[in-house]
Structure formats: structure tokens, C-alpha cells
Amino acid sequence: MPRPCKRRRICMEPLCTGFAPLGEGVRCEEAVIMALDEFECIRLMDLEGLTQEQCAVQMDVARTTVQAIYSSARKKLAQCLVTGKELRISGGNYNLCGQHKKCCQKHCMGTFQNLEKEGAKKNMTIGVTYENGQIFQHFGHTEQFKIYEVQDNKIVSSKIVDTNGSGHGALAGFLNDYKVDTLICGGIGGGAQNALASVGIKLYGGVSGDADAAVEALLKNELAYNPNVHCDHHDHHSDGNCGTHGCGERHCGEH
């Protein structure tokens, strides 16, 4: 007998279960059905930036299984975009995580949605790229972080720490050593974002202004940030990302 297909773990059912195309003369006579495990794979890899290996751990399946799920999900999205078909999200071979109302693992959808609805976690450690009281705008170049300890949703202590020359991926480990679980910063590249995600640090990027005020705004669920933040502090005139200043993965010339 063939082995039964292992159920994939998902953190939460989607808020929207269908999307329809707009346009003159569009007729949604046929829909593309995306399974919930395919939706979860898209969420983890395309939105949260996880690798296939990290996604496999989160969904409790093999990496090859994630690869197949992801490929199927992306093809269905392409069908909807190119041919104007309706997308419906339902079904699939999955188990809803039993801890979805708490924090089951890193990148738990329920945890992040609770942060957005209820404000920041009651107990957390927040790091902010820091310079003279302001949020420093280039993550990989920051020479200091201000680290805030939060208990019962209130700041109980803060301190300024020097990075001692650490850059891009190394800064994720630096923050992890200080038990930081949330980061507020300005510009930050994709490589650094992936490094932060790999150690479970929640990112609020594209933020400027007073560092203390930004933390207070986060605790009140009023922080304005850019979920699609990237490093744009100079023009990229050569191949690759801006790795020399620590915001990406490859070099882009002298700075």
C-alpha cells in the first residue's frame, strides 16, 4: 500500500477565501482552486521571506514537498493573473496548528495578526537602529542600536549598544545575542531581511524620526511602517545588491 500523504501544518485559515478579476467584459466562468497548504506556502516564502528549508520546518513536511507545493501555487497565481480567472482558496491536505492562538513557531500568522490587531506583545525586546536619538536609516551601516525591554506593554528599561563594526547578516546574530525579537529601522535590503527572519526577528522597516516615539507608537499599534521596505539610500549602478554597506548580499561598488 502507498504511504498516506502527510498533512501539512498551517497557522491560520486565510482572511479572504476568494479573489475575482476586474475589467470590462470579464466573465468569471471558471475558477482556479488553491488549497490552503498552497496558500500557506506562498505566505511563508513570498511574504515572510522564508527559504524552502525554513518553510518545510514550519509546515512540518519535507523540503521536496514544499518545493512541489510552492511550484503548484505559483502556477495557479499565474493562471489567474494571465487568463483572468477567479481565485478561490479552499480544501487541501492540512492540519490547523493547535497553537495558532498563541505562538506555535517563528512566522506564525496568528501571532503577527494579533500584533497588528492588539498592538505589540506585552513582553518583548525591541531593537532600533539608532543615531543621536533618531532612527538611523541604513541598517547595515548602523553603529548603534537602542534596545528597549517591554513588560506588560510598557517600556521598563532601555540601553544603547555599539555594533562594533558588525555588518549585514552579522547584525542579525548581534541582535539575537541581545534577545531582540522585534526590530524598527529605516532602509534594509533583502539579504538582511532574510537573516533577521532566520532568527525570528519581526521587522518594522521604512520608519523614520525619533526612536523613543517610534517604540511608543508600536506599543500603541500606531506605528507607520513599510512592509515592502528596501535599501534605497543610493543609486545602484552595478550588478547585485548593496552588500558593502550591509543591506544586501552582493557588492555594488565603492561607498
Characterization of this structure:
- It is a single chain.
- The protein has 255 residues and is an alpha/beta fold.
- The protein has helices at residues 36-47, 52-59, 63-83, 109-118, 168-177, 190-198, 211-219; strands at 8-10, 18-19, 31-34, 86-89, 94-96, 124-131, 134-135, 144-151, 154-162, 182-184, 202-204.
- The strands form 3 sheets. Strands 6, 7, 8, 9, 10 and 11 form a 6-stranded mixed beta sheet that branches.
- The longest helix has 21 residues, at 63-83.
- It starts with 7 loop residues before the first strand and ends in a 36-residue tail after the last helix.
Q: Could you give a quick summary of the protein structure above?
A:
The protein is α/β, with parallel strands linked by helices.
Please name the defining characteristics of this protein.
31% helix, six-stranded mixed sheet, 11 strands, alpha/beta, 255 residues, single chain
User: Order of helices and strands, N to C?
Assistant: EEEHHHEEHEEEEHEHEH
Kindly estimate the percentage of residues that lie in beta strands according to DSSP. Answer: 15-25%
Structural class: alpha/beta
* Overall pLDDT level: 79
Q: What is the CA–CA distance across the termini?
A: 62 Å
Number of helical segments?
A: 7
**Inertia-based shape:** elongated
- Major sheet: 6 strands, mixed
User: Oligomer, anyone?
Assistant: single chain
How many strands? 11
What are the segments in which pLDDT stays under 50 over at least 5 consecutive residues?
100-105, 110-120, 233-255
Write the layout of secondary structure elements.
Blueprint lengths: L7 E3 L7 E2 L11 E4 L1 H12 L4 H8 L3 H21 L2 E4 L4 E3 L12 H10 L5 E8 L2 E2 L8 E8 L2 E9 L5 H10 L4 E3 L5 H9 L3 E3 L6 H9 L36
Parallel strand pairs: 1-5, 3-4, 6-10, 10-11
Antiparallel strand pairs: 2-4, 6-7, 6-8, 8-9
Helix pairs in contact: 1-3, 2-3, 5-6
